[in-house]
Amino acid sequence: MKAAMNPIKRRRLLLAAGLLLTLWATWQVSQDAPAPQVAVQATARRAPGKPTAPAPVLPLQWPTRAESTLPITDLFGAPAPVVAVAPPVVAAGPAQPVFKLKYIGHLIAGDNSHAFLADEKDQVSIAKVGQAVGDDWQLAAMTDQQLVFRHTPTGQEHTLQIGTVP
User: Fold this and answer.
1) In a domain, 115, yes or no
2) How many Å apart are CA 151 and CA 138, to the nearest integer?
3) How many domains does the chain have?
């Protein structure tokens, strides 16, 4: 029984054969000598009793190698890097303003209504209706159940439900 050829040896043998065939083909193609003129003469059987005229001799020329206009690329070079294209960004409307105030309490005593609020740093501020609170907010309205704030740059309103304490 014949032992199987080692895969590494088989690969090396195939690569060597491919290299030799490539070198031979390159040498054959790189020959720039003009192709020789070959005369072709038709041969035909003579029919009995008829004289035959000699067939004309036609020149035969092998076509020359065409010049390539394509750029030469390195077949064994590193592939070009793949560039990921980001999906197009759809422009959204103006960003919703972030309301960062916390409700602490309120005091309604006739016309003197005050709301006690804390910001993200837990600094307490007291606001009346119409007064600015925080950076971009204004207390627009106040009732027993809710506080309405208006974002001054955009005019958007934010309602804070507060309810009542029994």
Assistant:
1) yes
2) 7
3) 1
Residue 14 lies in a domain: no
**Domain span at 115:** 102-161
Q: What is the pLDDT along the chain (166 residues), one digit of tens a residue?
A: 566 778 899 999 999 999 999 998 888 876 655 555 555 555 556 556 666 667 777 777 666 656 556 666 777 777 777 787 777 777 666 677 888 888 888 887 777 888 888 888 888 888 888 888 877 889 898 888 888 999 988 888 888 888 755 4
47-69: string of b/e by CB count within 10 Å (b at 16+)? eeeeeeeeeeeeeeeeeeeeeee
Task: Flag whether 64 is in a domain.
Answer: no
Characterize the bridge pairing of strands 137-142 and 38-40: unpaired
The DSSP element (H or E) to which 146 belongs, if any, is strand 146-151
Is 58 inside a domain boundary?
no
Residue keyed to tokens 């690569």: 15
How many Å apart are CA 166 and CA 53, to the nearest integer? 131
Global confidence as pTM: 0.43
